Amino acid sequence: MELDQVLFKKLLVFLKKWREKPSKGEIPKTIHLTDINSRLTFIARALTGENIDIVAAENEGGWKNITFYLPSSFSLLPSLEENLHFYIFRVVYLCIQKEENLNWKLQRANQSIQDSRKKAEEAAPIILNKIALEYPSLMEFYLSIKPHFSNEQNPSFWIYGKFMTERDVLENGHGDFNDQNNLKKDSLHPSTELKSKPVEEVEVISVDKKTQEDFVMTHNFEKVETIEEFTGVWRGFDGDDSLKEDADALNEVNLKHLVRTDEAAHSIYQADFRDLANIAESADTEEDRCVTYKEWDFSQKKYKSNYCKVFLKNIGGGSLDYAKKCLAENAKNLNALRRKFAQIHQKRRMVKKLPDGESIDLDSLVEWYADLKSGRTPSDDIYLSKRKKEADLAILFLMDLSLSTDSYADGNRILDVEKQAVILFGEVLSEYDVDFAVGGFYSKTRNNCAYHLLKKFGENWESGKRRLSVVEPQGYTRIGPALRHSQSLIEQHDARQKWIILLSDGKPNDYDKYEGRYGIADVKQALREMHERHISTYAIAIESIARFYLPQMFGQNHYNILSHPDMMVSSLASFYRRINFS
Amino acid sequence: MLIEHQPYYKAMDKEVEVFAHCFKNNLSVLLKGPTGTGKTRFVEYMAHQLGVPLITVACHEETSATDLTGRYILKGAETVWQDGPLTRAVREGCIIYLDEIAEARPDVIVAIHSLTDHRRQLFLDKVPEEINATDSFMLVASYNPGYQKGFKELKPSTRQRFVSIAFDYPATKAEQEIVEQESGIDTSDSKKLVKIASKIRNLNELGLMETVSTRLIVDTAKLIKSGLPKRLSVEVGMIQPLSDDEETLTALKDLADLMI
Ligand SMILES: Nc1ncnc2c1ncn2[C@@H]1O[C@H](COP(=O)(O)OP(=O)(O)O)[C@@H](O)[C@H]1O
Ligand SMILES: [Mg+2]
Questions:
Q1: Cα B85 to Cα B46: distance, rounded to the nearest angstrom
Q2: Is the pLDDT of residue A19 over 70?
Q3: Which of A559, B102, B127, B236 has a CA between 20 and 30 Å from the CA of residue A142?
Q4: b (16+ CB within 10 A) / e for A342-375
Q5: Torsion-angle region of residue B150: left (phi > 0), alpha (psi -120 to 50) or beta?
């Protein structure tokens, strides 16, 4: 680090600490957007009927396409309650503003921020009129807070926001920038992702000649704004404070003016704090078999054929210790799952009207007696048995191995919870002779999607458990090709019922613009392809951003979001019960 | 059971006509649609209109053919056959309404096969007996598609045995009218309730949650009518039944509070 950088950082850390010190005896009144984001998202989605996302704004914010920008925290009103209400007010306000389509229309109008604020204030009466009509109590709130925002310290733009340019960069086409050789090898493996300070509109100062698309920086700003749980990432550095400081310094970088070069832009704020990426990277050899899959482009409403390359990876080695330890640590859960399975299977396998069996079937006995009484020859098949019937079922577990599974929920690493679920469920399925397979995936652009077949159908479970012990989080989450490859595997199975279960954090994303609506639409399309072929799908995720992504893709009743990893067992069991009774 | 008083039913489309023609032509009817959209009420209304007794069976996971056709029971030292609801309907010429038929065990579908085609016969293999359906017998079933895709679906071959009528939540105006009729609350309140419901239905379309049925709105309206505070009525009548998740509930309460 250069000296000036060091000084800058020191100063910054100092300022930050000084700024953050709370004064004594003060009642907290600040509301942070992150704490109420999902609550507000619900409201916005209900009122508009669209998949609105809410993200932090630089300042007052506004709306753009299906994204609402709101202040990242708010404390200008006297009480916590009022500041919370302020957010609700802004959300409703933006819903109406969007409904009325009040925003800049031009792609790049030469507007200043002052213009944008002025336009927003001018539009306010239309919006307030509607509020008064439809949400009278909210109008009262508005009238009560209005006097607070009439001076220089509290300018009125907080209430009215600003106009933004409607164009959403995310929705624009996406090119083929992602050619692997264009990107420096290192930058493909961001080892940590920081939430940087929000930026909603980015001016690109182009140093190269490529002005045609701004997706590299788009991609980045989306990622830095949405990676919610980066707490896990901090874990590797116990005792090392410099990380936090670096983060502060990075936060001060104003992302508004980006310089674009041919290098992947995310190296700007994704510093190399950690070197996880090299694990298993050596397996990327040319020997990996490669298959290509199409991808759905929702804006064109058509497939891009042979668009994604999926490399089938073989992992060797691995030991049984991981699974043994997991099973031992979860002995209680395992037994609970076994009991549930026993119940389910007992019902399913009860066979009536047998010439002999463990017990007498009362219904048949009554009939036997009736026949006897009426002078007919009764059938002697009056026994019950818990016979073993072949389960006509094949399940494929598809595990998200992307870096986002390296984050922690309730002190558990997501990937470990995924592994744990597969190991427990797999253990019991194998005891009951239900055939299953396990796949894992991650991606680094469409040209490099990886698929680990951790356990094949029909293969013994031991080898699967070994391979499971080896996989570690890496790359991004291109779910579509992984689903399509899973489909090609399970299709060959002759079971009548076929299920693919996705375990992930539920958010499609990849380095080359596989996100937002594009990613979701492709996953939905892949699911549709499967349903046409009578393959059923289900998704399980640990509580996270999944709440807003899984439903869009999987539909109601076909996903389960666990608020705690301990719910995994009961969730798996109830899922299994449902497939068994259908 | 003969329905004596005419039930209140607000027709949405041509369903009354369709049903009447099916009855005349001995065709079975499948009512498709989410819960609480007035399917049961419609069948009751039609039974009354046609003057035919109605027998309703709510199907569940354990409902088997035996439950519908009948079984032998012990009576003293005797075993006697007892008709199930379906058999009674066939003999006496009733409308039988199998609610949520997809929930029932597969043998139920097999048992009704011969009743849904030209034969109109029920075969009791245990007695054994073959019963020809009385002329006014009619089979009506309901089914909630979408809600259990992959889990419990009605096979296409089964669906082809029925004339199908689709049900959905009524349009705003009609729903307000139903709510007012059923509960007696005034228009300004029914408007608000229906509006809240429509916003929550937006969330349902985005896959975020269970939906609000007309039934829930009517129940909430009844609470309001009998004097419970409005916000509380909405919370217990329309919001709490939808979810157990704290965060979701909070957001829904915010939403309702904005509108009432
Ligand atoms: N078209 C309608 N006319 C009258 N009442 C209706 C209508 N649709 C719904 N309702 C009300 O909704 C309630 C639930 O309807 P119900 O017939 O039980 O629904 P379903 O059988 O579809 O689950 C009824 O008790 C009634 O109050
Ligand atoms: Mg991911």
A1: 19
A2: no
A3: B236
A4: eebbeeeeeeebbeebeeebebbbbbbbbbeeee
A5: left
Its CATH architecture, for the domain A294-343+391-581, is: 3-Layer(aba) Sandwich (3.40)
Cβ–Cβ below 8 Å for A49 and B206: yes
- In short, whether B116's Cβ falls inside 6 Å of ligand 1 is no
User: Where are the domain boundaries for CATH 3.40.50.410 in chain A?
Assistant: 294-343+391-581
CB-ligand 1 contact for B34 (6 Å cutoff): no
pLDDT digits (tens, 9 = 90+) for A532-567: 888 888 898 876 677 778 888 887 778 888 777 778
Per the domain annotation, does B8 fall within a domain?
no
Quick check: helix, strand or coil at residue A308? strand
pLDDT score at A215: 30
CATH number assigned to the domain comprising residue B49: 3.40.50.300
Return mean pLDDT, chain A. Answer: 75
Strand A350-354 to A302-313 pairing: unpaired
Q: Whose CA is nearest to atom 1 of ligand 1?
A: B10
Whole-angstrom CA distances from A454 to A401, A403, A516, A530, A537 are 12, 18, 29, 21, 19
Q: Which residues contact residue B157 at a Cβ distance below 8 angstroms, ignoring those fewer than 6 apart?
A: none
Q: What are the C-alpha distances in Å from A506 to residues A144, A176, A421, A444, B132?
A: 41, 25, 16, 17, 55
Cβ pair B200:A51 closer than 8 A: no
A561 forms bridges with which residues in the sheet? A541
| Alpha-carbon gap, residue B26 to B22, rounded angstroms | 6
Q: Could you give the number of structural domains in chain B?
A: 2
- Are B146 and B24 in a shared domain? yes
> What pLDDT sits at residue B151?
66
Mean per-residue pLDDT for A3-23? 61
Q: What's the ipTM?
A: 0.84
pLDDT band at A504, cuts 50/70/90? confident
Q: How far is A168 from chain B (nearest CA, A)?
A: 21
Return d(Cα A434, Cα A424) in angstroms, integer: 14
B162, two tokens: 């029925």
Domain boundary among B166, B198, B227: B166
CA A542/CA A566 separation, integer angstroms:
10
- Give the pLDDT of residue B121: 92
**Within a domain: residue B131?**
yes
Q: In terms of C-beta distances under 8 Å and separation of at least 24 residues, what long-range contacts does A96-101 make, across chains too?
A: A96/A127, A96/A130, A96/A131, A97/A62, A97/A63, A97/A123, A97/A127, A97/A161, A98/A48, A98/A63, A99/A48, A100/A126, A100/A127, A100/A130
Confidence of residue A246 (pLDDT cuts 50, 70, 90): low
Indicate the helix (H) or strand (E) that contains B22.
Answer: helix B15-24
pLDDT band at B176; cut points 50, 70, 90:
very high
Report the distance separating Cα B49 and Cα A321, nearest Å: 71
**Atom 7 in ligand 1: residue holding the nearest Cα:** B38
Q: In the A/B pair of chains, how many CB contacts fall below 8 A?
A: 105
Same domain, B41 and B132: yes
Q: Which of residues 52-111 of B touch A (CB under 8 A)?
A: 61, 66, 71-74, 78-81
